[in-house]
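Many introductory courses stop at the sequence. We go one step further.
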Amino acid sequence: MVNVKDEPVTINLPQFSGQAVDVYWFTSGGEDVLSLDIRLNDVLMDSSGKNGISFTPKSIQGSIEMPALSYGFIVIPDANVEKCRDQPPTTTPRSRALVTKHYEYSRSSGAALKMWFVNLCLTLYFIVM
């Protein structure tokens, strides 16, 4: 999901009312969307690649508020769908090396405008690894 608005949006999933859902909202880690840092559920992520990447969800029940200028996804653990019951993937040495390469490139090239999209692609890459 992507929220390109300057204000939060509310998401309702009536078919899963009464069930807790896990949200993963990615937002800018700085003061504006051009920041080279990224936050997951308001926690600044370590983009050095040295400590691996921890994807810790925020558990919500009821209506879901997606932050302004964010992207992310929702996991419904009790949805009774096999893919939703799988454990989140762990990072591998290869994925950590890619994060390090991405981080070094972003710091040296000044490609701040492209960073939001690149962060999205890397996030999706780690999810499917």
